[in-house]
Amino acid sequence: MSKPKIAFIGGGNMATSLIGGILDKGHPSSHITVSGPTEEKLFRLNQKFGISTTKDNSIAATGAEVILLSVKPKMVKSVSLELSASLKHRPLVISVAAGIPLSSLQKWLGKDAPIVRCMPNTPALVQAGATGLFANTVVSREQCGLATEIFNAVGVCCWLEKEEDIDAVTAVSGSAPAYFFLFMEAMEKTGIELGLSQKVARKLILQTALGAAKMAMENDIEPAELRRRVTSPAGTTEAAINTFLEGDILGLFNKAMTSCVKRAKELAKEA
Ligand SMILES: NC(=O)c1ccc[n+]([C@@H]2O[C@H](COP(=O)([O-])OP(=O)(O)OC[C@H]3O[C@@H](n4cnc5c(N)ncnc54)[C@H](OP(=O)(O)O)[C@@H]3O)[C@@H](O)[C@H]2O)c1
Q1: Over the stretch 147-182, which tens digit does the pLDDT of each residue have?
Q2: Residues 176/181/185/186 CA torsion (nearest 10 deg)
Q3: CA-CA distance, 184 to 192, in Å (whole number)?
Q4: Which terminus of the chain, N or C, has less C-beta within 10 A?
Q5: Class of 174-270 per CATH?
Q6: Is the per-residue pLDDT at 2 higher than 80?
Q7: What percentage of the chain exceeds 70 in pLDDT?
Q8: Cα 96 to ligand 1 centroid, rounded to whole Å
Q9: Which residue lies with its CA nearest to atom 25 of ligand 1?
Q10: What is residue 59's predicted lDDT score, i.e. its pLDDT?
Q11: Domain 6-165: homologous superfamily in CATH
Q12: Mutation test of ligand 1: which of 9, 71, 86, 127 has the most ligand atoms closer than 8 Å to its C-beta?
Protein backbone atom coordinates (compact mmCIF):
# COMPACT_ATOMS: atom_id res chain seq x y z
CA MET A 1 0.00 0.00 0.00
CA SER A 2 1.50 3.42 -0.92
CA LYS A 3 1.98 5.74 2.03
CA PRO A 4 -0.94 8.16 2.35
CA LYS A 5 -0.74 11.82 3.32
CA ILE A 6 -2.07 12.10 6.88
CA ALA A 7 -3.25 15.30 8.56
CA PHE A 8 -3.55 15.38 12.34
CA ILE A 9 -6.00 18.02 13.50
CA GLY A 10 -4.70 18.67 17.02
CA GLY A 11 -1.17 17.78 18.03
CA GLY A 12 -1.56 16.65 21.68
CA ASN A 13 -0.82 13.38 23.47
CA MET A 14 -2.78 11.00 21.25
CA ALA A 15 -1.56 12.60 18.01
CA THR A 16 2.06 12.58 19.23
CA SER A 17 1.95 8.87 20.07
CA LEU A 18 0.30 7.97 16.75
CA ILE A 19 2.84 10.05 14.82
CA GLY A 20 5.74 8.42 16.71
CA GLY A 21 4.30 4.95 15.96
CA ILE A 22 3.66 5.44 12.27
CA LEU A 23 7.07 7.10 11.69
CA ASP A 24 8.71 4.11 13.44
CA LYS A 25 6.86 1.85 10.99
CA GLY A 26 8.45 3.68 8.06
CA HIS A 27 5.85 6.30 7.17
CA PRO A 28 7.65 9.25 5.50
CA SER A 29 7.66 12.38 7.68
CA SER A 30 7.01 14.44 4.51
CA HIS A 31 3.53 12.79 4.38
CA ILE A 32 2.44 14.02 7.81
CA THR A 33 1.03 17.44 8.70
CA VAL A 34 -0.21 18.57 12.10
CA SER A 35 -2.41 21.57 12.77
CA GLY A 36 -3.07 23.24 16.10
CA PRO A 37 -3.52 26.64 17.66
CA THR A 38 -0.20 27.01 19.51
CA GLU A 39 2.87 27.99 17.45
CA GLU A 40 5.31 26.81 20.12
CA LYS A 41 3.80 23.30 20.35
CA LEU A 42 3.77 22.98 16.56
CA PHE A 43 7.43 24.04 16.45
CA ARG A 44 8.29 21.32 18.99
CA LEU A 45 6.50 18.68 16.89
CA ASN A 46 8.33 19.86 13.79
CA GLN A 47 11.68 19.64 15.59
CA LYS A 48 10.93 16.24 17.10
CA PHE A 49 9.52 14.48 14.03
CA GLY A 50 10.51 16.59 11.00
CA ILE A 51 6.84 16.80 9.96
CA SER A 52 4.97 19.81 8.49
CA THR A 53 2.86 21.96 10.78
CA THR A 54 0.30 24.70 10.29
CA LYS A 55 -2.07 26.75 12.43
CA ASP A 56 -4.73 26.39 9.73
CA ASN A 57 -6.78 23.17 10.02
CA SER A 58 -8.16 23.51 6.47
CA ILE A 59 -4.65 23.80 4.98
CA ALA A 60 -3.64 20.62 6.85
CA ALA A 61 -6.71 18.79 5.51
CA THR A 62 -6.32 19.88 1.89
CA GLY A 63 -4.75 17.05 -0.11
CA ALA A 64 -4.64 14.65 2.87
CA GLU A 65 -5.92 11.13 2.24
CA VAL A 66 -6.46 10.58 5.97
CA ILE A 67 -7.56 13.25 8.44
CA LEU A 68 -7.18 12.29 12.07
CA LEU A 69 -9.35 14.35 14.41
CA SER A 70 -7.25 14.35 17.58
CA VAL A 71 -8.75 17.27 19.48
CA LYS A 72 -10.64 17.06 22.78
CA PRO A 73 -14.28 15.92 22.38
CA LYS A 74 -15.64 19.41 23.14
CA MET A 75 -13.68 20.82 20.15
CA VAL A 76 -14.83 18.19 17.64
CA LYS A 77 -17.98 20.00 16.50
CA SER A 78 -16.34 23.34 15.69
CA VAL A 79 -13.29 21.71 14.09
CA SER A 80 -15.50 19.39 11.97
CA LEU A 81 -17.68 22.25 10.76
CA GLU A 82 -14.52 24.20 9.90
CA LEU A 83 -13.12 21.23 7.92
CA SER A 84 -16.29 20.27 6.08
CA ALA A 85 -15.53 22.60 3.14
CA SER A 86 -12.07 21.00 2.68
CA LEU A 87 -13.34 17.42 2.24
CA LYS A 88 -14.45 17.52 -1.42
CA HIS A 89 -11.70 14.97 -2.24
CA ARG A 90 -13.41 12.56 0.21
CA PRO A 91 -10.50 11.72 2.50
CA LEU A 92 -10.96 9.20 5.31
CA VAL A 93 -11.73 11.03 8.56
CA ILE A 94 -10.79 9.17 11.74
CA SER A 95 -12.13 10.39 15.07
CA VAL A 96 -10.50 9.31 18.33
CA ALA A 97 -12.83 11.54 20.35
CA ALA A 98 -14.53 9.71 23.20
CA GLY A 99 -18.33 9.80 23.15
CA ILE A 100 -18.93 11.51 19.80
CA PRO A 101 -21.23 9.29 17.69
CA LEU A 102 -20.95 8.83 13.92
CA SER A 103 -24.35 10.48 13.43
CA SER A 104 -22.98 13.76 14.86
CA LEU A 105 -19.70 13.49 12.92
CA GLN A 106 -21.67 12.93 9.69
CA LYS A 107 -23.92 15.89 10.44
CA TRP A 108 -20.91 18.17 10.87
CA LEU A 109 -18.53 16.73 8.23
CA GLY A 110 -21.12 15.85 5.56
CA LYS A 111 -23.33 12.79 5.16
CA ASP A 112 -21.12 11.27 2.44
CA ALA A 113 -17.89 11.63 4.40
CA PRO A 114 -16.05 8.32 4.99
CA ILE A 115 -15.59 8.24 8.77
CA VAL A 116 -14.01 5.78 11.19
CA ARG A 117 -14.79 6.22 14.86
CA CYS A 118 -12.42 4.60 17.28
CA MET A 119 -11.59 4.09 20.94
CA PRO A 120 -7.86 3.88 21.62
CA ASN A 121 -6.37 3.68 25.12
CA THR A 122 -3.50 5.41 26.91
CA PRO A 123 -0.86 2.65 26.39
CA ALA A 124 -0.87 3.89 22.77
CA LEU A 125 1.40 6.56 24.26
CA VAL A 126 4.05 3.83 24.73
CA GLN A 127 3.13 2.04 21.48
CA ALA A 128 1.26 -0.70 23.37
CA GLY A 129 -2.30 0.48 22.83
CA ALA A 130 -5.50 -1.44 22.15
CA THR A 131 -8.02 0.21 19.82
CA GLY A 132 -11.55 -0.68 18.73
CA LEU A 133 -12.63 0.73 15.35
CA PHE A 134 -15.98 1.14 13.62
CA ALA A 135 -16.49 2.47 10.07
CA ASN A 136 -19.54 4.06 8.47
CA THR A 137 -20.86 2.48 5.26
CA VAL A 138 -19.01 4.97 3.00
CA VAL A 139 -15.54 3.84 4.11
CA SER A 140 -13.82 1.72 1.43
CA ARG A 141 -11.89 -1.50 2.05
CA GLU A 142 -8.66 0.37 1.24
CA GLN A 143 -9.51 3.09 3.76
CA CYS A 144 -10.18 0.40 6.42
CA GLY A 145 -6.68 -0.89 5.63
CA LEU A 146 -5.21 2.58 6.20
CA ALA A 147 -6.92 2.91 9.59
CA THR A 148 -5.72 -0.59 10.56
CA GLU A 149 -2.11 0.35 9.65
CA ILE A 150 -2.27 3.54 11.74
CA PHE A 151 -3.57 1.87 14.91
CA ASN A 152 -1.43 -1.27 14.54
CA ALA A 153 1.55 1.11 14.58
CA VAL A 154 0.79 1.90 18.25
CA GLY A 155 -0.35 -1.54 19.42
CA VAL A 156 -3.22 -3.74 18.27
CA CYS A 157 -6.65 -2.91 16.86
CA CYS A 158 -9.95 -4.73 16.26
CA TRP A 159 -12.81 -3.84 13.92
CA LEU A 160 -16.24 -3.84 15.56
CA GLU A 161 -19.51 -5.11 14.13
CA LYS A 162 -21.69 -2.28 15.39
CA GLU A 163 -21.10 1.23 16.65
CA GLU A 164 -22.52 0.57 20.11
CA ASP A 165 -19.71 -1.97 20.66
CA ILE A 166 -17.48 1.11 21.16
CA ASP A 167 -19.08 1.40 24.63
CA ALA A 168 -18.07 -2.19 25.45
CA VAL A 169 -14.55 -1.44 24.15
CA THR A 170 -14.48 1.54 26.50
CA ALA A 171 -15.15 -0.92 29.36
CA VAL A 172 -12.70 -3.66 28.27
CA SER A 173 -9.75 -1.56 27.08
CA GLY A 174 -10.43 2.21 26.85
CA SER A 175 -10.86 2.67 30.61
CA ALA A 176 -9.11 -0.57 31.59
CA PRO A 177 -5.52 0.67 32.05
CA ALA A 178 -6.85 2.40 35.17
CA TYR A 179 -8.22 -0.91 36.53
CA PHE A 180 -4.76 -2.46 36.26
CA PHE A 181 -3.20 0.63 37.87
CA LEU A 182 -5.69 0.20 40.72
CA PHE A 183 -4.58 -3.44 41.27
CA MET A 184 -0.96 -2.34 41.24
CA GLU A 185 -1.75 0.40 43.75
CA ALA A 186 -3.63 -2.03 46.05
CA MET A 187 -0.93 -4.71 45.81
CA GLU A 188 1.84 -2.21 46.47
CA LYS A 189 0.03 -0.85 49.54
CA THR A 190 -0.39 -4.35 50.99
CA GLY A 191 3.16 -5.34 50.02
CA ILE A 192 4.44 -2.41 52.10
CA GLU A 193 2.14 -3.36 55.00
CA LEU A 194 3.62 -6.87 54.80
CA GLY A 195 7.08 -5.39 55.31
CA LEU A 196 8.55 -4.73 51.87
CA SER A 197 10.02 -1.39 50.83
CA GLN A 198 8.00 0.51 48.25
CA LYS A 199 10.82 0.13 45.74
CA VAL A 200 10.97 -3.64 46.06
CA ALA A 201 7.17 -4.07 46.12
CA ARG A 202 6.72 -1.93 43.00
CA LYS A 203 9.51 -3.58 41.04
CA LEU A 204 8.15 -7.07 41.73
CA ILE A 205 4.51 -6.14 41.08
CA LEU A 206 5.21 -4.41 37.74
CA GLN A 207 7.35 -7.30 36.51
CA THR A 208 4.62 -9.75 37.59
CA ALA A 209 1.98 -7.78 35.67
CA LEU A 210 4.19 -7.80 32.57
CA GLY A 211 5.06 -11.49 33.01
CA ALA A 212 1.41 -12.54 33.47
CA ALA A 213 0.39 -10.54 30.35
CA LYS A 214 3.26 -12.11 28.36
CA MET A 215 2.30 -15.64 29.45
CA ALA A 216 -1.34 -15.03 28.52
CA MET A 217 -0.35 -13.55 25.13
CA GLU A 218 2.27 -16.12 24.19
CA ASN A 219 0.19 -19.22 25.01
CA ASP A 220 -3.09 -20.10 23.38
CA ILE A 221 -4.47 -21.02 26.81
CA GLU A 222 -7.53 -19.56 28.53
CA PRO A 223 -6.67 -17.18 31.41
CA ALA A 224 -8.83 -19.34 33.74
CA GLU A 225 -6.69 -22.39 32.84
CA LEU A 226 -3.44 -20.43 33.32
CA ARG A 227 -4.74 -19.49 36.74
CA ARG A 228 -5.64 -23.09 37.60
CA ARG A 229 -2.13 -24.20 36.58
CA VAL A 230 -0.46 -21.86 39.09
CA THR A 231 -2.94 -22.64 41.90
CA SER A 232 -1.96 -25.78 43.81
CA PRO A 233 -4.67 -27.28 46.02
CA ALA A 234 -4.42 -25.95 49.58
CA GLY A 235 -1.47 -23.77 48.56
CA THR A 236 -0.71 -20.09 49.03
CA THR A 237 -2.14 -18.91 45.67
CA GLU A 238 -5.38 -20.78 46.35
CA ALA A 239 -5.70 -19.04 49.71
CA ALA A 240 -5.45 -15.66 47.98
CA ILE A 241 -7.72 -16.56 45.05
CA ASN A 242 -10.41 -17.99 47.36
CA THR A 243 -10.38 -14.72 49.30
CA PHE A 244 -10.93 -12.76 46.06
CA LEU A 245 -13.78 -15.08 45.01
CA GLU A 246 -15.46 -15.01 48.44
CA GLY A 247 -15.40 -11.21 48.14
CA ASP A 248 -17.28 -11.64 44.81
CA ILE A 249 -14.55 -10.17 42.66
CA LEU A 250 -16.27 -11.50 39.53
CA GLY A 251 -19.52 -9.73 40.42
CA LEU A 252 -17.57 -6.58 41.20
CA PHE A 253 -15.92 -6.64 37.75
CA ASN A 254 -19.30 -7.06 36.14
CA LYS A 255 -20.70 -4.12 38.12
CA ALA A 256 -17.68 -1.90 37.42
CA MET A 257 -17.62 -2.55 33.67
CA THR A 258 -21.40 -2.19 33.36
CA SER A 259 -21.15 1.19 35.11
CA CYS A 260 -18.46 2.15 32.62
CA VAL A 261 -20.74 1.33 29.65
CA LYS A 262 -23.64 3.22 31.27
CA ARG A 263 -21.45 6.30 31.76
CA ALA A 264 -20.16 6.11 28.16
CA LYS A 265 -23.78 6.16 26.93
CA GLU A 266 -24.62 9.12 29.19
CA LEU A 267 -21.56 11.05 27.96
CA ALA A 268 -22.47 10.32 24.32
CA LYS A 269 -25.96 11.77 24.98
CA GLU A 270 -24.47 14.87 26.63
CA ALA A 271 -22.07 15.29 23.67
N1 LIG B 1 -4.93 10.46 25.56
C2 LIG B 1 -5.51 9.28 25.48
O3 LIG B 1 -5.01 8.28 25.95
C4 LIG B 1 -6.82 9.09 24.76
C5 LIG B 1 -7.46 7.84 24.81
C6 LIG B 1 -8.64 7.67 24.09
C7 LIG B 1 -9.15 8.72 23.35
N8 LIG B 1 -8.52 9.92 23.34
C9 LIG B 1 -9.10 11.01 22.56
O10 LIG B 1 -8.07 11.68 21.85
C11 LIG B 1 -8.44 13.04 21.69
C12 LIG B 1 -7.25 13.90 22.04
O13 LIG B 1 -6.87 13.65 23.37
P14 LIG B 1 -5.42 14.06 23.89
O15 LIG B 1 -5.23 13.34 25.17
O16 LIG B 1 -4.42 13.90 22.81
O17 LIG B 1 -5.67 15.63 24.19
P18 LIG B 1 -4.62 16.82 24.17
O19 LIG B 1 -3.26 16.34 24.53
O20 LIG B 1 -5.22 17.94 24.94
O21 LIG B 1 -4.58 17.24 22.63
C22 LIG B 1 -5.56 18.00 22.01
C23 LIG B 1 -4.86 18.92 21.02
O24 LIG B 1 -5.84 19.63 20.29
C25 LIG B 1 -5.31 20.94 20.05
N26 LIG B 1 -6.39 21.85 19.70
C27 LIG B 1 -7.19 22.58 20.53
N28 LIG B 1 -8.06 23.32 19.80
C29 LIG B 1 -7.80 23.05 18.50
C30 LIG B 1 -8.35 23.50 17.28
N31 LIG B 1 -9.38 24.37 17.24
N32 LIG B 1 -7.85 23.03 16.13
C33 LIG B 1 -6.82 22.14 16.13
N34 LIG B 1 -6.25 21.67 17.26
C35 LIG B 1 -6.74 22.12 18.42
C36 LIG B 1 -4.62 21.29 21.35
O37 LIG B 1 -3.71 22.32 21.11
P38 LIG B 1 -3.25 23.30 22.32
O39 LIG B 1 -2.72 22.39 23.39
O40 LIG B 1 -2.22 24.14 21.69
O41 LIG B 1 -4.49 24.03 22.75
C42 LIG B 1 -3.95 19.96 21.70
O43 LIG B 1 -2.67 19.87 21.12
C44 LIG B 1 -9.64 13.29 22.60
O45 LIG B 1 -10.80 13.44 21.81
C46 LIG B 1 -9.74 12.05 23.45
O47 LIG B 1 -11.09 11.70 23.73
C48 LIG B 1 -7.36 10.14 24.02
Answers
A1: 999 999 999 999 999 999 999 999 999 999 999 999
A2: 30
A3: 12
A4: N
A5: mainly alpha
A6: no
A7: 99
A8: 9
A9: 10
A10: 96
A11: NAD(P)-binding Rossmann-like Domain (3.40.50.720)
A12: 71
